[in-house]
Amino acid sequence: MLLTPEYIFRSIESITPAFLRDHGITALVLDVDNTLTGDGSQVLDPSVQAWLDTMRAAGISLTIVSNNTARRVRPFADRVGLAWVPLAAKPLPVGLAVARRRLKVPRRQMAMVGDQIFTDRLAAGLYGIPCLYTMPRGGDHQRGVRFKRRFEPRWIRRYYEKGGTLYE
What we know:
- The radius of gyration is 14 Å and the shape is globular.
- The protein has one domain (7-167): 3-Layer(aba) Sandwich (Rossmann fold), CATH 3.40.50.1000.
- 35% of the residues are buried.
- It has helices at 17-22, 46-57, 70-80, 94-103, 117-127, 143-149, 152-161, and strands spanning 7-9, 27-30, 61-65, 83-85, 110-114, 131-134, 166-167.
- Helix content is 40%, strand content 15%.
- By secondary structure, it is an alpha/beta fold.
- The protein has 7 helices and 7 strands; from the N terminus they run E-H-E-H-E-H-E-H-E-H-E-H-H-E.
C-alpha cells in the first residue's frame, strides 16, 4: 500500500545505523518540520544534532528535501551542515529524484524520513523507496497539515494490524 508505512519510529533519534545497515540503506532524505525540528522552528534539539553526528560517523549520506521555500530551509540546512532541496512538491517524487542524483546512490540504498503520510510516505512510495515514518515532533501550525493529520490514524492502524512494531 502506498500510504501504509513500512516502518514507524518514535522519533528520528530512534533510527540507528544498525537498522540502516540491516536494510541496505546508505542515504537518507530528511524532512524538516516535525521530523528534524518543530514546525517552523530553526532550533535543532541537541539529541537530533547528536543523531546527525552519529549518522555521519557511520557513513550515512544525508540531505534535506522539503516542501518549504529556500527562505525557510536554507538557514536551517546551513546551520546543521546539510545539502537541501526546497519546493520539493511532495507527494510528487521530483524532489527525491533531485536528492538521489546529488547523493549519487542507487534508489535501493535510499530512504525517506518524514512525519506525514500524505507527503513523505506517499512520495517515497511513488518513487519506490521506503519511508522511515517518524511520529511528529510537535504541533502543526499549517491548517492544511492539521486537516491531513485527521486521516493518518487509519494508515498507522493498518501498519500495526499487519504486525508492524514501533521502533523506539
